[in-house]
Amino acid sequence: SNSIINPENDCPQKKQNSFHLQDITMKSSKISERGEKIGHGASNPTPSTGNQTEKGNLDEHTRDRSNSITVNPQFMNRASLLSAEASYNSYRGFLNLGIILLFITNFRMVLENIFKYGFLLSLSYYQGFIGEYWRWPALSISLVLLVFIFMAFVIEKSASRRPINDVFSIRWNILNIASSIFVPSALVWTVKPNPASAMVVMILSVTLTMKLVSYAHVNYQLRFESKTKKVVGYPENLTVSNLCFFMACPTLVYQLEYPRSQKIRKLFLLRRIFEAIFVGGLIIAIVEQYIVPLVHHSVQTIRWEPSEIVYMMERILKLSVPNLYVWLLGFYWFFHIYLNILAEVLTFGDRLFYKDWWNSTTLSYYWRTWNIPVHTWMLTHVYSPARNTFGFSKTTSYLICFLISAAFHELVIAVPFQILKLWTFFGMMAQIPLVMISGNLRGNQLGNILFWASIVLGQPFLVLMMYRFST
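-> structure tokens emitted (471 positions)
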């Protein structure tokens, strides 16, 4: 009967196991309580270190993965990082590699040039330039340009007071504008100053001609409007100070008022001046150390025969690198540094002298964005009048713009170097079919590649051709 009431009496081994199980349970409970106190800081809190936290997270992550490896597989639909469909777009490491390769390649070119030609840079040329009197006529020719500025003021001032009619003023303006480009060209061709200074004279002459066209055209429109209504600002704008400000401004289009900045930023101006000196010196160094000896040596060794076409291509490729550097540095020096210096000194507010031409996928976009002052002048004083006043078609108006641009480029290049071979003129006119062809690649990456290829290879080819036929 006792065994029925208390069966443990009949099973001493089972009773002993029961006590042992209770003892283990109590110890596990105490350990758990101690762990909770340490973990939550209930008593004697111990700060956890970063290693302990990372180890705990790692153990938990490993435990979760081991528990979910059959539930959550580690594979999914993913593209390779270099695939076009991948969302990954950080390639900074390749950019750094490209910079290193560019540096190595150019440094090798520097060493090769020094080993072959030695150091060609010398200050004696520039010291002699100051002392040699026959190089100074370029400055005298530049001073002649002031005569045409004065004549433009006299013509417009007289026309505003009605002593001469509009037809007479138009004829005088045409004569003055034509003289502003042909007289300096004839003087440079006759006197033969240093080609570098002569090119500066021709650039100033072309710039003045475009400014005089704008000054005469805008004042003619203002004078025409003033016959029927009151025009605010006209003829009060016809002052010497107003004309001088326009002639110095980094713009080719005349108007009564321009946006102005509040003050001259001295630190900004000093940075631009320092950049002008450094970049200008770098351009001179590349031209004298690399381009001049390379072109001279190429023209002497090339026989200009069909059998030599491979060697000609090698010369063009070798010249393309320094020529591209000079072209890019020249763009930066003129459009970013020089024009910003003028704008800062004159507090001229509109500093958009260029747009993102380097992203051009068509040549048409390039010609509209790389030189905003010239593009604005062409649009205002050539394209729009041709379309609206004379009724020309869009294609004809576009052709007229290219003809004028090609003529100006030919004058700037051919007159200083005494070579009227029309290489620059036809090179510009050849852009017209290329503009039409590249129009089919608008927005296409291939268009940008072809654009840069035409710049990189086309310019050194023209340089070699011009030098070949000028010697």
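The mean pLDDT is 80.
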